[in-house]
Amino acid sequence: MTFTVLKFSSEDCGTCHRMAHYDAKVAMELDAELIIVMLQDTDTYRRYRKVLLAQYPNKEGMGWPTYLVVSDPEGAFTIHGELKGGMPKGEFRRKLAALLPQGEA
Fold first, then answer.
1. Which domain holds residue 88?
2. Strand pairing partners for 51?
């Protein structure tokens, strides 16, 4: 099963920009696809809005950025976990890895 990491972000979020320096690389290293959903990008936002609202029906409690680990984000999606807010690269890698299934070493 392929997992997708949806990053809900905003163009005016400094923390989101800082994490953008490494979040895609970390996701790729962990065999997950990262899709960046900028709130200002209405087409992309509209496409994944249902996933966000399933986790945050009124958007309360979201962090900036919010990462949702999802299978089948285009269809009958399942949310497997989330990460919220800024964190250093090592912590992001460790927390994201904990949400993804690990292959045989």
1. 3-99
2. none
In a domain, 104, yes or no: no
Give how many domains the chain has, as a whole number.
Answer: 1
Q: What CATH number did the domain enclosing 9 receive?
A: 3.40.30.10
Q: What is the mean pLDDT of residues 56-85?
A: 94
Beta partners for 8?
37, 66
pLDDT tens by residue, 24-36: 999 999 999 999 9
Q: Please state the pTM of the whole predicted model.
A: 0.93
* Residue 101: partners with Cβ closer than 8 Å, 6 or more residues away: 1, 3
Nearest to 55 by CA among 12, 19, 8, 2: 8
Query: For 1-105, where are the alpha helices, taking DSSP H only?
Result: 14-19, 23-29, 42-55, 89-99
Q: Assess if residue 75 is contained within a domain.
A: yes
- The stretch 18-25 carries a mean pLDDT of 97
Closest residue by Cα to residue 66 from 89, 31, 44, 35: 35
